[in-house]
DNA sequence: AATGAATGAGTTTTCATTCAT
DNA sequence: GATGAATGAAAACTCATTCAT
């Protein structure tokens, strides 16, 4: 790891801490540079602006998140098993990485994130495609409710993300035994009842 | 409607517009007063500070939201009917009032809102109690999954709020025919499968 | 006393209280009108501006002060007796009227007061003339130090005003037995030593 | 002198000028920064707030003042000589440094200064102790009037400070030959008459 | 390349004054 | 005459960004 990468990484890590704690607007760049152990000007050698730093941080975290979710993904296993695998990975990643979760939550609720998601919808990546295939297959098998694919994604991910949000806010406690039940809730939300 | 209520209402409405659009921090009070058609100082005749304005706006909207949800609520109808009634009202309110939805989403994700929700958990109001009774009854009848009440609330409300969030972001379109299906998704997320 | 005089007097009294407590700049006119029990606009029916209110209040208090000092003044008694009489009256007035003292102290240290005193020097009133005669007589009799009259006034009044200032600030306590000693200090400051 | 000291000193000097002229409340920070030739934000790099700037400026000036007063002080010379030395130094310092005098006058009449003086009374520094010893010694020798030490300080300093105040206001002119007479007035104010 | 002092536009808030009622 | 709601200019202070070193 080069010196350059070190500084960049230090800035991103400090930014993550502080954004997760105080939000984008409650986080002066001076605080970030201080926590990162670099000069205030140094941020601007690695990032064009604070906004750019936020977007780059998102890219970084989004990559890690996808890697975590798809770490042990296998297309060939049965549908339900694939679903459970993805959602459990997602849930565990957020529980284990609260800073990342808070940042991403914030990001996707901000103008930055809304634009990003719109762009991604137009131009989906490999992982999104994988997700889409899963939901498409389920729909074709009549396993899911008769709703558009994007709606099914929202509905199935909602239970988990709300549970995590309240867990991180200290309003509920997700214990280990609850993990499968939460994943089940995600499936049940979109599964067709017989 | 008196003159006094007019100004206050104009400020609250302008603030709602602008907060929903730009977030709390992206909304200078000068923009709010301009949009409300009042002087910059006038905001401070009705609200002690910008923070106070945010909190008062929340109170206002929270009251309206609760009124909308419980508009036609009847304790005596069957459990599932009560559930469907509440969740459909909630969904329709947010679809019909996107500014309110965005504001509340933001509020409950901010330090203000997290504190508020903690306080409410300690000291629940009448409506919360009503909600709690519903979930308690369902659990006693073994209708819901074996999870703490708060977790069930998070899980059941998540599908809808995520669907609405994406709808308001323009990523999916909630059509009228989907409303019962979304409500069903909320129920299914927490219902016990036989 | 007419209604009109009542309101005016109420405003002046409230202003005195608040100026003495908080200083000119720490005293919003709204606070003054509230304490006076009148509308915020009413002040501007009796006074052209806040500055004007301050100047008028000064005039009022200055009149009262002079009346108090000269209440029992008699030109025909011996010099020293006249001096003691004036200075004791002054000291007692300030001890008994701390608000007035604080206001006047402030006033004479402000741009308003400095201009006022310059004007008065150019164009002395009856009481100033009386004072001047006293000091003039003393100098002619070689009773006072060889200094200009105004300087003698400053030197002789300084001990008392500093003692009162510190008394009102709570740093020293002027007890009754000290009054003659303080007056004596004023005399001694300017008296020629033999 | 480093660059950093330059800016700080420029701000303090500009602030002194403007405070002395217009008072604390009549001196916007924007005026200070403009006069100092720095940006508006720069003040806040060196001082936490305007209040802090005022307090720091006081500390600076108070230090200089004490240094000037005690520049050639010697404990071993006779009492009267020590007194004359201190008071003449004080007088000359104020005549030579009118801005400093006006600032300090204002400061000690403001809430800042009153608190400061109370604190100093509780917890006197080295110079105050020196002053106290002088007055104590004088009282034990029956040289001074039978009054508490603090009162003697007020009475003895009053003549000079009033004379200086009126001198700086342009109402009297202190000429060089008057200096010993003014110092004598200070002594006479508190000295016991035989 | 890295720094961090300096900047000034932009933000919240106050308050003397006005004017419609 | 009296009111007090409304005003907006002006104040203190913040912080993303620049640039000389």
UniProtKB/TrEMBL annotation, chains A, B, C, D:
It comes from Desulfuromonas versatilis. PANTHER family: HTH-TYPE TRANSCRIPTIONAL REGULATOR RUTR, HTH-TYPE TRANSCRIPTIONAL REPRESSOR FATR. SUPFAM superfamilies: Homeodomain-like, Tetracyclin repressor-like, C-terminal domain. This is TetR family transcriptional regulator. It comes from the Bacteria. Residues 28-47 bind DNA. Keywords: DNA-binding. InterPro entries: Homeodomain-like_sf (IPR009057), HTH-type_TetR-like_transc_reg (IPR050109), HTH_TetR (IPR001647), Tet_transcr_reg_TetR-rel_C_sf (IPR036271), TetR-like_HI_0893_C (IPR054422). Residues 5-65 form the HTH tetR-type domain. The lineage of its organism: Bacteria, Pseudomonadati, Thermodesulfobacteriota, Desulfuromonadia, Desulfuromonadales. It holds the Pfam family TetR_N.
């Amino acid at each position: 790891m080069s010196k350059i990468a070190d500084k960049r990484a230090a800035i991103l890590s400090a930014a993550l801490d502080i954004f997760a704690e105080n939000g984008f607007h409650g986080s002066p760049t001076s605080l970030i540079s201080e926590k990162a152990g670099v000069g205030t000007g140094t941020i601007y050698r690695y990032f064009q602006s604070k906004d750019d730093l936020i977007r780059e941080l998102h890219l970084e975290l989004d990559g890690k998140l996808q890697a975590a979710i798809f770490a042990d993904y296998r297309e060939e296993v049965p549908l339900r098993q694939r679903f459970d695998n993805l959602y459990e990975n997602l849930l565990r990643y957020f529980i284990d990485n609260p800073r990342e979760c808070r940042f991403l939550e914030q990001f996707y609720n901000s103008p930055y994130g809304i634009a990003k998601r719109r762009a991604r919808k137009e131009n989906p990546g490999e992982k999104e495609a994988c997700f889409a295939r899963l939901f498409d297959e389920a729909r074709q098998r009549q396993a899911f409710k008769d709703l558009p694919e994007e709606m099914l994604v929202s509905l199935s991910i909602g239970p988990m993300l709300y549970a995590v949000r309240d867990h991180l806010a200290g309003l509920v406690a997700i214990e280990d035994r609850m993990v499968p039940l939460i994943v089940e809730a995600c499936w049940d939300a979109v599964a067709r009842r017989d």
